[in-house]
Amino acid sequence: MLLKLFMPFAFGYFLSFLYRVVNVVIAPDLVSEFGLNAAQIGMVSSVYLLTFALCQLPLGILLDRYESRKVSAALLLLAALGAWIFASANSIEGLLLGRGLIGIGVSACLMAAFTAYANLLPVQRLPLVNGLQLMTGGLGVVAASTPVQWFLSWGDWRLLFQAMALASLLASGLVLTLVPRYVVVVKKQKVSQQLSELWQVIKSPIFYQLAPLSVATQGIFGAFIGLWAGYWLRDYLSLSPAEAAQVLLTMALAMTAGFALLGWLAGWLQKFGIGAHVVSVVGMLVYLLTQLVIVNEWSQWHHLWWGLSGFFGTSGVLMYAYLSQSIPKALVGRVNTSLNLCVFVCAFAGQWGLGMLIDQWPTNAAGVYPQVAYFNAWAWVLGLQGLSLCWLLYNAVLRQAR
Predict the structure, then answer these.
(1) Cα–Cα distance between 285 and 291 in angstroms, integer?
(2) Which residues make Cβ contacts (< 8 Å) with residue 152, sequence separation at least 6?
(3) Residue among 174, 165, 151, 208 nearest 9 (CA)
(4) How confident is the model at residue 398 (pLDDT cuts 50, 70, 90)?
(5) CA-CA distance, 135 to 162, in Å (whole number)?
(6) Is residue 392 one of the residues assigned to a domain?
(7) Which residue of 9, 324, 374, 379 has the fewest C-beta atoms within 10 A of its own C-beta?
(8) Is the pLDDT of residue 390 over 70?
(9) Burial degree of 295 (CB within 10 A; 0-12, 13-18, 19+)
(10) Is there a domain that residue 371 lies in?
(11) Domain count, the chain
(12) Would you give the DSSP letter of residue 108?
């Protein structure tokens, strides 16, 4: 059963990450063809994150009322439509519409999988299986680097999105036909009752004390891996496109390994009474350290530090497994999607906001923004993550005092 359950969801999640980060590679083509500035390319990329985020709360209710396979399969059809519209766009409005529909279409790829796993698999297997699911997203990032560049050497970005539209149709069919059925516990509950139960969980200490750091680190990581990492490497560090692509590939491979290995580590440490949230918090602290090293250029070992950033940038997602283990199964879909909503709102604000900040400085004759623009932009997001860390430590001290 595990393969029939895992593979269709894994393929859909692979596509969702490919959609999310492919603009890192095709952004120069879009900028050239449509004459976009930093704020506009940030908006085109981040509208995916906005529509994705807006779907999360209604998605949580749907996942707790209907089987995951039905919800995910239906939405993937919208992703296919969005990809085709994006491929056919002749204006920035067309790009925004297509990208927005893609965000809606893939909004269930991860949460539907997590909800199905929580309903069909033993609790002790969730951190590992969730980690493997997330690993396939890392493979989507890998595919968005060198393989996409190879594709663009003989095709163009429009043909690429047409191919992705067809792949989305295939993913929809696989999810609907292969994923095993399960009994939905709360199908006859009123929506008002579902919302009331969700609010009780969100306002509980286990959620509001741990979620902010996870949200901030995942959101900022998503903003960079989805667009700005490539600009930072090319413009701030003055690496050639080939060198930047190699560093991005290292980061993507490390991210893929992080999803799998940190999920395995969290599952193994549970045998000794160490929760997944502990592994998550420690990993997020290391991720913050790697950002400090990168932004201040304390080391020229770019592959090492960007690789560590990719590996530990995934640690915030372990909070999903921890929350899933800490609440009734009937609430899993709503709680996971609530956390996901916060993450993607943060990623949207980060990806678009970074573009707006960078755009405050003029470009040079080659269309490149100065180093100070990138430095100040990253300083803002480091400050956001620092505040969320202080919130977590403050609440930890309060718990000890009691």
Answers:
(1) 10
(2) 25, 26, 29, 160
(3) 174
(4) low
(5) 25
(6) yes
(7) 379
(8) yes
(9) middle
(10) yes
(11) 1
(12) T
183 inside domain: no
Q: What is the mean pLDDT of the chain?
A: 84
Q: Assess if residue 248 is contained within a domain.
A: yes
pLDDT tens digits for range 50-82:
898 888 778 877 887 888 889 999 999 999 999
Q: How far apart are CA 355 and CA 377, in angstroms?
A: 8
Domain residues for the domain of 36 are 2-177+189-401
Query: Dihedral sign, CA of 254, 323, 220, 39?
Result: positive
> Contact at 8 Å (CB) between 46 and 224?
no
- Rg of the chain (C-alpha set): 20
Q: Which amino acid is present at 155? A: G
- The C-alpha atoms of residue 298 and residue 320 are separated, in whole angstroms, by 33
- Taking CA 14 as the corner, what is the angle to CA 301 and CA 235, rounded to the nearest 5 degrees? 35
For residue 276, what is the domain's CATH number? Answer: 1.20.1250.20
Residue 180 CA to residue 272 CA, distance in Å, equals: 32
CB-neighbour burial class of residue 57 (10 A; exposed 0-12, middle 13-18, buried 19+): middle
Measured CA to CA, the distance from residue 374 to residue 25 in angstroms comes to: 19
Owner of token pair 């965000």: 103
pLDDT at 185: 64
Phi, psi of 236, rounded to the nearest 5 degrees:
-75, -45
Which ranges of 89-125 would DSSP assign to H, the alpha helix?
Answer: 92-105, 109-120
Burial of 293 (0-12, 13-18, 19+ CB in 10 A): middle
Q: Which residues contact 17 (CB under 8 A, 6 or more apart)?
A: 136, 137, 138, 139, 140, 141, 144
In the numeric block, the tokens 């609530």 are attached to 338
Amino acid at 107: S
- Taking the CA atoms of residue 215, residue 290, residue 146 and residue 367 in that order, the dihedral angle to the nearest 10 degrees is 90
Q: Inform me whether the pLDDT recorded for 267 exceeds 80.
A: no
**Residues contacting residue 226 through CB under 8 Å, at least 6 positions apart:** 20, 21, 23, 24, 45, 46, 49, 347, 351
| DSSP state for residue 225 in the 8-state scheme | I
**C-alpha to C-alpha distance for 376 and 90, rounded to whole angstroms:** 34
Whether the CB-CB separation of 99 and 45 falls below 8 Å is answered with yes
Q: Which residues, at least 6 apart from 322, have a Cβ–Cβ distance to it below 8 Å?
A: 210, 275, 276, 277, 280
